[in-house]
Amino acid sequence: MGFYTILSASIQGIKVEMIQVEVDVGNGLPVFHMVGFLASEVKEAAERVRTALKNTGFMIPARKVVVNLSPANVRKRGTAFDLPIALGVLMALQILPGNRLKNALVVGELGLDGSVRRTEGILAIVAEAKERGIRFCIVPEENMKEAVLIQGIHILGVKTLAEVCEWAKGHNCAVTEADFTSDFVHEVQKAYIDYSDIQGQEIMKRAALVAVAGNHNLLFIGPPGAGKTMVAKRIPTILPGLTREESLEITRIYSIAGQIEGENPLITKRPFREVHHSVTRAALIGGGMIPSPGEVTLAHGGVLFLDELPEFSRTALEALRQPLEEKCVHIARNQGIYSFPADFMLVAAMNPCPCGFYPDLDKCSCSLSQVQKYLGKISQPFLDRLDVCVEAAKVEYDVLVGKQEECTSEKMRKKAEEARKIQKERFKDLPIATNSQMRKEEIEQFCRLDSRGESLMRQAYDALHLTARSYYKILKVARTIADLEGSEVVEEGHLGEAIGYRMMDKKYWVC
């Protein structure tokens, strides 16, 4: 009988909280009591642990067992505490020596037969353990491929509680040990779709290239069947590659959300999240009683695609305004404030009216009030956060069946990557990576206009009734267009194209 402490971890939002599993075994009424601000699935660990110990061959004497998960003011969720609780009980009973588990972090769910099952968030837990100087981690073997993505920390993968016990006794056993990672190779998006599939719509393709090159938000508006969704869904084929750091950051988010593959856990291509218009506000930006990441966080480092934009609830769309500006989501609860990363590129597509043919009055069957109501679902503050707005014109028959210069996704991706390299070099000493992230200071430094550009910008500002936000958005887009052309300065032509990308929203939202 005695007392033992073993280290484990808990996921809080996307952060990791280190948890001390304290086990005390003493005289008193035989009871297995757990305390420490526990969720229901953690409280149920008492029965799982007791049964797993019995089925592994350990007979627990009739003693008072108290388990405390510290700190007590942090809500404990999940099933990752089963294995450390079981080991803590055995060591408090002095059935197992505890010297091999010093400076170790242990996580894992137990089956009633003593098997150790996978848990979520292992990548984040191992990364945090490394940051805190912990020597090694004991994790379920099913999580091994995920855990070894973190370099510089020793990983022990186990299948059963019996294996861990034999290892703790110093015996040779079948546990899997690893302290390595494979070389990182960016995976180019491979798909059966390509921009060469689309006949015509060169303006939309150009807008997609500009948006990807500078990580700008993009809106397509036009009649049904014009190719808005086709162009949007091919954006993943031109997205620049991930660095290893970006890949690990995205994988960490998906690990916590329980959305990674067991065999190939490392995410090597940028996310493309297509969301149905029935999505709730909480599912879109994150939330719940115990906040969890939403679609904007799952799209971090990639693209969030909203098709049929006006069909989304006004509440959901307005909730996007803050993450579009701040690149993160803050959710306040009684137990604290949760912050989720949300640095994504928003791509949206919509019809201009319920029937889809406005402003072609020969085809449009909607009344003016219907058009106003439909477009009114998209507020001006939301529109101001969309850097590039492009009209999807009807494709003429001759263009549809004719020959055209081949514009492949590979060629477009190379152009986007070259522009991103220019931006990376430009911002190497700043905490930003793309033109869309520039603040006022960077805009004044890198987006200077000559006298003709100043004159053109002044005319556009007055004629289009631009806001201060849209003014700066135009300058950012103009800087990206200049980067695509390999120009060090923003010329009048670059600015003119950027202004053109702001005219479509003014055309439709004046009725």
Written account of the structure:
Helices cover 37% and strands 17% of the residues. The chain has helices spanning 40-43, 45-56, 82-92, 122-131, 144-147, 161-168, 202-214, 228-233, 244-257, 281-285, 295-298, 314-319, 321-326, 368-375, 380-384, 397-401, 409-426, 440-446, 451-463, 468-484, 492-500, 503-508; strands at 3-12, 15-26, 31-35, 64-70, 104-106, 109-110, 116-117, 136-140, 154-158, 176-178, 218-221, 272-275, 303-307, 328-333, 336-341, 345-350, 388-391. The chain has 22 helices and 17 strands. It is α/β, with parallel strands linked by helices. The mean pLDDT is 89. A hairpin with a 5-residue loop joins strand 6 and strand 7.
Summarize the structure.
The model has no long low-confidence stretch (mean pLDDT 89). This protein has helices at 40-43, 45-56, 82-92, 122-131, 144-147, 161-168, 202-214, 228-233, 244-257, 281-285, 295-298, 314-319, 321-326, 368-375, 380-384, 397-401, 409-426, 440-446, 451-463, 468-484, 492-500, 503-508; strands spanning 3-12, 15-26, 31-35, 64-70, 104-106, 109-110, 116-117, 136-140, 154-158, 176-178, 218-221, 272-275, 303-307, 328-333, 336-341, 345-350, 388-391. The protein is elongated, with a radius of gyration of 28 Å.
Helices, strands, pairings?
Layout (H helix, E strand, L loop, with lengths): L2 E10 L2 E12 L4 E5 L4 H4 L1 H12 L7 E7 L11 H11 L11 E3 L2 E2 L5 E2 L4 H10 L4 E5 L3 H4 L6 E5 L2 H8 L7 E3 L23 H13 L3 E4 L6 H6 L10 H14 L14 E4 L5 H5 L9 H4 L4 E5 L6 H6 L1 H6 L1 E6 L2 E6 L3 E6 L17 H8 L4 H5 L3 E4 L5 H5 L7 H18 L13 H7 L4 H13 L4 H17 L7 H9 L2 H6 L3
Parallel strand pairs: 3-4, 5-8, 8-9, 11-16, 11-17, 12-13, 13-16
Antiparallel strand pairs: 1-2, 2-4, 6-7, 9-10, 14-15
Helix pairs in contact: 2-3, 7-17, 7-20, 19-21, 20-21
